[in-house]
Design a protein that fits this description.
Order of helices and strands of chain B: EEEHEEEEHEHHHEHEHEEHH
Structural class of chain A: mainly alpha
Number of strands of chain A: 2
Distance between the termini of chain A: 37 Å
Order of helices and strands of chain A: HHHHHEEHHHHHHH
Distance between the termini of chain B: 30 Å
Number of helices of chain B: 9
Oligomer: heterodimer
Number of helices of chain A: 12
Radius of gyration of chain A: 26 Å
Chain lengths: 288, 250
């Protein structure tokens, strides 16, 4: 399998029509680097919207108030049930049916109003589409985290006189984080790549820009490789970040925190020359 | 301090409490015993409104728990007022329920700071004194996972005391402990009783009930079968059901 994969990579890498010099030329061009900045901005904003709204939706979903719970259910049903590409497309083209948006006090013309296109730029359309969609997924992740916390914790906090919000914020959510963080890391990595869907709104992010380059120079695969290298680099950084965040929220659940990669590396250096442990290799009698 | 009149509670079709009447005086230590499923824990949880009662009246320190009377109807109190009432009643659980993401000290100062709006320095000073009182001054910065069961339960008692409660409820505080750790928790409770705390203790520790309790209540099937001075009830039970239960546990 490994040999087969290596062969496939080798064949592709040495394909005569693949212009590697084009890859190296464009990899660090400011035009592409600018796209990376937009990609990061989109990812961060969409995830912030997703996490904040997701927590609110999850708490609403678990609320004893049926209206709250129902509104949250409806939101998740709708935004999880339609493709994110369609949602970005929807926000981007909203001005076709609603040329003006604003807040007007009914019966008067007091208020504020603006053209839909000036309010929802391509960037905002993509942010909204990605963020509102993400919130529906985050709501379910956060809800799973909240449910995972033992009920005794709520009771202990209530018995001390803490109100519902305080119990949630100080006692339940911090403990739920341990369950919430790993899938959220996943979602962030996934979001980083999903931002490429913003190409439909011509947002100048990494993929849109590499496409634009390839349209001019006919270097489709080359630019796809450029984009892939950067996406891989960014997801690698996120993976490391996730490890440290998980470690932080594990405090109190383990007697001793696991070593960081750096600590592990150091330990490896220090024990590298140590003689092998003196353990007899005989099989105990009766277990042959 | 606590007055119960015909308290009823059902979970679905299961009637767990079928008319509980009792009275606890200030500084009294009442021990509640009975077979599992007798409703003793449920009754304890009704006292701080962790469970809502279905019928009857239950008041702590002269005020109804969780309800307000207007005319001859009872209205449920808003969350804020229920919280206020709960903050005056300390509770200790069978499984400790310490907050695992906080150190012992943080467990103790959380509610005083967030609920009573005490300053950090005041809360820390009082919490340190309490940890010292339960013999855990050296465990201030330990997380619950790093403590033994007995130590965790002593932190849990200190956490409840940090709110300066008028009344302490103990729900089988030693049932989840290894036998050799039971003593240290009972010692703390014994000293608390000697200091004049009003306590209701659901327990299987007959020795503790005999020595420390002012009253002993035997519950079975959601009713109080027998109540009286612990020594008399334990030595000379009047009811057949009490006799049967005691013959199995003593």
């Amino acid at each position: 399998m490994v040999a087969l994969a290596a062969d496939a990579v080798y064949t592709l890498a040495t394909a005569p029509n693949l212009k590697w010099d084009q890859v190296w030329t464009w990899l660090f061009r400011p035009f592409i680097l600018g796209g990376i900045v937009v990609t990061i901005e989109l990812t961060v904003l969409a995830m912030v919207i997703g996490i904040v709204l997701g927590v609110v939706l999850a708490v609403m979903r678990l609320s004893p108030n049926p209206v709250m719970s129902w509104v949250s259910w409806l939101y998740i049903w709708f935004f999880r049930g339609t493709p994110v590409l369609v949602q970005i497309f929807f926000w981007y083209n909203l001005n076709a049916v609603l040329p003006h948006v604003g807040l007007i006090i009914p019966g008067t013309d007091v208020g504020w109003q603006t053209g839909t296109n000036s309010l929802i730029s391509a960037f905002i359309a993509a942010t909204l589409g990605l963020g509102l969609n993400e919130a529906a997924y985050m709501a379910e992740i956060v809800r799973a985290g909240i449910i995972s916390v033992e009920h005794g914790q709520t009771e202990a906090a209530q018995a001390l006189g803490m109100n519902r919000l305080l119990v949630m914020r100080r006692i339940i959510l911090p403990q739920a984080m341990r369950v919430i963080i790993p899938p959220t890391g996943n979602e962030t990595i996934s979001m980083l790549k999903t931002t490429s869907l913003a190409v439909i709104a011509a947002v100048p992010e990494l993929f849109t820009r590499s496409q634009q380059v390839s349209n001019v120079y006919f270097t489709v695969i080359e630019m796809a490789i450029v984009a892939s290298i950067w996406y891989l680099a960014m997801t690698s950084v996120l993976t490391v970040g996730q490890y440290y965040i998980e470690r932080y929220f594990a405090r109190g659940t383990l007697r001793e925190l696991p070593p960081t990669p750096l600590q592990r590396f150091r330990r490896l250096l220090f024990t590298f020359h140590a003689p092998p442990p003196d353990v007899p290799l005989s099989i105990p009698p009766g277990r042959r | 301090m606590v007055e119960a009149e015909a308290v009823h509670k059902s979970f679905g079709r299961l009637e767990v409490l079928r008319g509980i009447d009792l009275e606890v005086q200030p500084k009294e230590v009442m021990c509640v015993i009975g077979p599992s499923g007798s409703g003793k824990s449920t009754f304890l949880r009704c006292i701080n409104h962790l469970e809502k009662i279905d019928a009857g009246r239950l008041s702590v320190d002269g005020e109804l728990v969780g309800y307000r009377q207007r005319g001859d109807k009872l209205y449920e109190l808003p969350d804020r007022e229920v919280c206020q009432k709960r903050s005056e009643i300390g509770m200790v659980f069978q499984h400790f329920n310490l907050f695992p993401h906080m150190t012992a000290l943080e467990n103790l100062i959380e509610a005083p700071m967030r609920v009573k709006r005490a300053s950090r320095s005041t809360a820390v000073a009082y919490a340190s004194a309490l940890l010292d009182r339960v013999g855990l001054a050296d465990k201030t910065n330990a997380y619950p996972k790093q403590l033994s069961g007995g130590q965790q339960q002593r932190v849990a008692i200190a956490r409840a005391l940090a709110m300066n409660p008028k009344l302490m409820l103990f729900d089988e505080p030693t049932s989840a402990l290894d036998p050799e750790l039971v003593g240290e928790v009972l010692d703390v409770m014994r000293r608390l009783a000697a200091d004049g705390m009003t306590m209701i203790v659901v327990t299987h520790e007959m020795g503790f009930a005999r020595e420390v309790g002012d009253t002993l209540v035997f519950m079975d099937g959601g009713v109080i079968v027998e109540a009286g001075k612990p020594r008399e009830v334990l030595a000379n039970p009047q009811q057949e059901r009490t006799r049967l239960f005691l013959s199995k546990v003593l």
